[in-house]
Amino acid sequence: MLLGAIIDSGLALHELVDTLQKLPLEGYSITSRQEERGHIRGTHVTVDIDSEKGSGYSIRDFIEIIEASSLQVSIKSKAKEILNRIELAESRVHGEGHPLKELGDIDTIIDVVGVVSGLEALGIDQLYCSPLPSGWGVTSSREGPLTVPAPATMELLVMAKALIAPPKGPYSQAGELVTPTGAAIITTLASFDPPPMIIEAVGHGIGTKDMPTIPNVLSLWIGSAKTASSMTNLSLLETNVDDSTPEILGYLQESLLTHGALDVWFTPIQMKKNRPAVALSALCYPDMEAILTKIILAESSTLGVRINSLRRFESEREVITVETELGPARVKLKKTDAKITGISPEFEDCKEISISTGIPLQEVFRIIEGKARKSLEM
Known about the structure:
Protein name: TIGR00299 family protein
InterPro entries: Ni_insertion
Shape: globular
Keywords: Nickel
Pfam families: Ni_insertion
Structural class: alpha+beta
Oligomer: single chain
């Protein structure tokens, strides 16, 4: 359904196929067609796999295929992160060395690489998700019936502390609504605090099952968080920690950012009994206070969290794409009173160009900023 939504949003099927052909992989074919579910029209993507070549893979097999491919470094990295998350969840649920069954089919790596590359092709640099529907009941598998959500799916949601919506009303009769692969993709790439945004395109991915109580449709909204200069109400979460290792603190910072913190930083401090320590600070929107506070309490040794309300003045920002001799690159514009007062090339785009061309990163920044200034007549 994610692939369907991406194609329905504007990615041509042949672009997806061209990217997937960079994988040293055979035994599958991809088709798409327009279908309806519950009077909602969208794109249904089918991955047909060869019964002899399309199954029996391990996560290590998939990762080796990705590493041997000619995919962009950023796509490889994100795809491997998703697959490693699947492997960890499977090992926790079934034990080390347990065969993947359905997850060992080729469509797993097709879905993962296809979604990662598709989002990049559409220029989506940040993904947000509404609470995931938990589903209800029992689903079938090659190993027999499984509860819904499937054990691996539930473990992925637990690992990510993902927001889920309990089964109510028509959702209580819908069966399985989130698969392990879908859960791994979303919990790796998305956060659950969508900001106000200007919607520019909508794509609908159509699921295979035609459910009687709800439309089996996944919607992808594409837009920009293009905000004018304004005051924003924020919350500052703080706590002092004097007995955690750098590894634990680094993991805590990553977890907070993944789950919606706007910024996280550490400040060296001195505590009682002459103990050196750090003050953890996390900036977030007020509606994320409870979630992030729970993460801080669960992932650190602290016994309490201070919460302060504050206001932040934000300049207007706009992201444009600049065509250069090195390839297209995004550039962030800072505006004050509708006048451009700052230009900043996007780091990830510059890094990709530097890796692919061998040109030093600082030189790439200089070239792209110069081209942006010229195109904007600055």
